[in-house]
Design goal:
By secondary structure, the chain is mainly α. It contains 11 helices and no strands. α3 crosses α4 and α7 runs parallel beside α10. About 25% of the residues are buried.
Length: about 260
């Protein structure tokens, strides 16, 4: 396992190495941060307005897994329906604005990167958005329908379901956002490897712990106790970990330094 002291030491070494790059003063950094936050908020507001125009259709998509089994949502508070529409529009707006917000994040961290590393901006944004959408789609088309069918139809057939907007939206978001974020594993490995905190050798050496963690997550999100179904949920996450190892090999500083020494 990764020693915390060793990880902190590697992070400090990476920061110290990059401190030698031409940079900005503290006030310039704060001003740049303020600018990026303002721009990101503006993009989010535009995305929210666009999503609000289609909020009825988006709410229909949200209820899709529930409607497929012949159930519908109920609400217990006068504000529940409005809150649901606002939440859906905000989430959809954030997804629409995510490429522009990620570009602002990249502009903020770019001064701390080498020129060769800045070429990753387009692949970084495409991979981040694509992986999140892949995880969210996996949750929407596979995890949620199976969960609704098993939890409500199979296990709850002796009871009368009353699924409220608040409870369903929380469950929906936990699945969609949880899987969307978990599919960002290669992006996390990308940054950890680029700063020299983890290496491909370390990731491969500890793959057994990664497999254990993946199957624990799969067991939590899998609606069926069937081991074959659980494997179906685990395989994409294991594939992402292996992709992360390949990414770590490609961007790790040791490879760059070896290439420079060879030249």
């Amino acid at each position: 396992m990764l020693d915390a002291t060793d990880a902190i030491g590697k992070a400090r070494a990476a920061v110290t190495e990059r401190a030698e790059l031409p940079g900005m003063s503290l006030m310039e950094h704060l001003d740049e941060l303020r600018k990026r936050i303002v721009h990101s908020a503006a993009y989010l507001a535009v995305g929210f307005v666009i999503a609000w125009i289609f909020h009825d259709r988006l709410v229909g998509y949200l209820q899709g897994p529930l409607l497929k089994i012949g159930k519908s949502l109920v609400f217990t508070h006068p504000m529940d329906a409005l809150n649901l529409k606002l939440q859906v529009a905000l989430l959809a707006g954030a997804i629409l604005a995510s490429p522009f917000i990620l570009f602002q994040v990249w502009l903020f961290i770019a001064p701390g990167l080498y020129q060769k590393e800045r070429r990753f901006v387009v692949p970084f944004m495409a991979a981040t958005v694509g992986l999140f959408l892949a995880g969210a789609s996996f949750g929407y088309f596979y995890v949620l329908p199976g969960a609704m069918r098993i939890l409500i139809i199979d296990m709850g057939h002796d009871f009368t379901p009353m699924i409220t907007i608040e409870d369903y939206s929380s469950f929906f978001l936990s699945i969609i956002l949880g899987l969307g974020i978990s599919f960002e594993l290669p992006i996390l490995i990308f940054f950890l490897a680029m700063f020299g905190i983890v290496s491909p050798k370390f990731l491969w050496k500890n793959i057994r712990y990664a497999i254990l963690a993946v199957f624990i997550v799969a067991a939590v999100i899998c609606p069926s106790p069937d081991p074959w179904t659980m494997c179906i949920y685990a395989i994409p996450m294991l594939a992402l970990y292996l992709i992360g190892i390949a990414v770590a090999w490609y961007v790790h500083p040791s490879r760059r330094k070896a290439k420079e020494a060879a030249l």
